[in-house]
Design goal:
The protein is 8% helix and 32% strand. It is mostly beta strands. The protein has one domain: Alpha-Beta Plaits, CATH 3.30.70.2330. The protein has a 6-stranded antiparallel beta sheet with strand order 1-6-5-2-3-4. The relative contact order is 0.25.
Length: 120
């Protein structure tokens, strides 16, 4: 048993707030290139469900202000999509974690979707 537990100093387990982390899919096919110079780590993005998307009914678009820059990859949107569809977008923070200007478009921008802490 650790010294902290023996002395009665328990540190409760705190799960990560990270819901998912991924590269922006389709970045080269949307308008990200038009605002690329504004994208940097720490930039906040908006998630938007696209249930009428003809290629993926669970599609989740990523927006910088009013500019669509791409999507959450199809293989990562299964759990997130219903939450957004039913109006729970306010529980998430989406932020750019990496910008690699020299990479191919599918690997230029990486994002993290985090669950907001409502306890504060």
């Amino acid at each position: 048993m650790s010294d902290n537990v023996q002395r009665g100093h328990r540190h409760p387990f705190e799960p990560s707030r990270e819901f998912l982390s991924c590269n922006v899919a389709g970045f080269g096919h949307w308008d990200g290139v038009l605002i690329f110079d504004k994208l940097e780590p720490g930039t906040h993005l908006k998630l938007e469900a696209e249930p009428d998307n003809p290629y993926d009914a669970r599609a989740i678009a990523l927006y910088y202000k009013d500019t669509k820059i791409g999507f959450i990859p199809r293989d990562m949107n299964l759990e997130l999509s219903p939450l957004l569809f039913f109006g729970h977008e306010d529980i998430f923070d989406t932020v750019i974690t990496q910008v690699r200007r020299e990479a191919d478009p599918e690997h230029q921008v990486r994002v993290m979707v985090r669950i907001r802490d409502a306890r504060n």
